[in-house]
Amino acid sequence: MKRAEARVAVHLLIRRGLDELTDFDDQSALQALGLDREDIEALLWRLEDRFDLCISPREEQRALWRLEKVDDLVQWLLEKSRQNQD
Questions:
Q1: Residue partners of 37: CB distance under 8 A and separation at least 6
Q2: Sorted alphabetically, which SUPFAM superfamilies does this protein's record hold (predicted)?
Q3: Which domain CATH number covers 34?
């Protein structure tokens, strides 16, 4: 998966959960966008489903503590995509 594809997927899913007019970029904090832990967890699940990723619940929980910005979510998706290809 290329970074651009991951970025588009993350931005699209966030926009679906927020007001379409909400302006944000990769450096935007997820909490500042109004996303709580449950919202972020739901984003992870949707990304896993969309890209057919197999992520353990333990890895998901670890990610929930680390993900702070939109870019962190993009990076997570890229990392998990690479791991699933191996």
A1: 64
A2: ACP-like (SSF47336)
A3: 1.10.1200.10
